[in-house]
Q: What sequence folds into this?
């Protein structure tokens, strides 16, 4: 349920401080660069962000080219801040307070889905059911998962509130992700791995449907 999910108890300021911590994490910076890279590669028109948090990467949207940009998050305060930051610059932005692990609601027919560091917190099967209801016949989905490489699931950055998500965090194997994606008709079209300062790495997988 939304009200019991620990993500609803983590202030956006804490989350962003944790993600931007340069010595140990630097995850926000890497994700921002990846968003820029894949938006430029595919030039999508109807875009869905799963777990949009504070809107990291929305500054790379070309407001003259995109038709719809939908962002989903379980934390309404994150969405409120994203709206403050970007709605004036990106009139196509629509935000939804949803839990993709418990929703099959259709909000967009997307040709591009960005899903970074969200599958560690939701059921793969349920998440792909949601995705299936929100894509058009030919769509790209970019998924980034975390490989701990022997490190703890949540990096030590001095931000205490972020530690609460350890209880729902689960490691997602690349094999399981590819297998589930295949069941829903997605084919792997590319991949890359980026190592973070703390020894963890991000594995980014490109899938194509259609």
A:
């Amino acid at each position: 349920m939304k009200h019991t999910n620990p993500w609803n108890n983590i202030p956006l300021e804490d989350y962003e401080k944790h993600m931007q911590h340069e010595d140990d994490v630097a995850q926000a910076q890497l994700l921002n660069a990846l968003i820029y890279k894949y938006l430029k590669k595919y030039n999508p028109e109807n875009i869905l962000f799963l777990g949009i948090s504070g809107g990291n990467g929305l500054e790379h949207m070309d407001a003259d080219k995109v038709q719809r940009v939908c962002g989903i998050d379980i934390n309404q305060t994150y969405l409120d801040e994203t709206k403050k930051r970007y709605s004036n610059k990106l009139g196509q932005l629509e935000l939804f307070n949803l839990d993709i692990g418990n929703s099959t609601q259709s909000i967009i027919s997307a040709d591009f889905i960005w899903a970074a560091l969200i599958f560690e917190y939701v059921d793969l099967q349920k998440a792909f059911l949601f995705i299936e209801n929100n894509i058009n016949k030919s769509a790209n989905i970019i998924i980034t998962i975390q490989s701990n490489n022997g490190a703890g699931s949540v990096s030590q950055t001095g931000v205490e509130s972020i530690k609460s998500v350890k209880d729902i965090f689960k490691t997602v194997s690349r094999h399981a992700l590819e297998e589930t994606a295949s069941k829903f008709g997605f084919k792997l079209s590319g991949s890359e791995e980026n190592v973070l300062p703390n020894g963890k790495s991000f594995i980014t997988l490109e899938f194509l449907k259609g």
